[in-house]
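The instructor's notes for this session suggest beginning with a concrete chain rather than abstract definitions. Hand out the sequence below and ask the class to guess, before any prediction is shown, which regions might be ordered.
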Amino acid sequence: MPNRYRSSHEPSPQLRNESWLVNGQDQLLVRFTEAQTTDQGQWVLMSTYRWIRPDPPVPQTRRRMLRQNAIEAWQNMLKVGWRRCHPPVR
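After discussion, reveal the predicted structure:
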């Protein structure tokens, strides 16, 4: 008998938490996405895009880093003028 208080399906492993930062002056957009946890620790993917509106973002770089390093990068980027934003409409 299924438990009525629990979801009847498991969430897709492709769906990850993500956060975005934008730097309008440099026309850059950065996405931080949770990656798999391994024996070495929790990983985050940092993807950088060139974004000249109204065109869609163009991928530039992608880097995997430990979660703690990603938190430090996020905080430093906010200090130097990056702003949180919603994902761009594709």
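Then share the key points. The helical segments are 67-79. The chain has one domain: 18-85.
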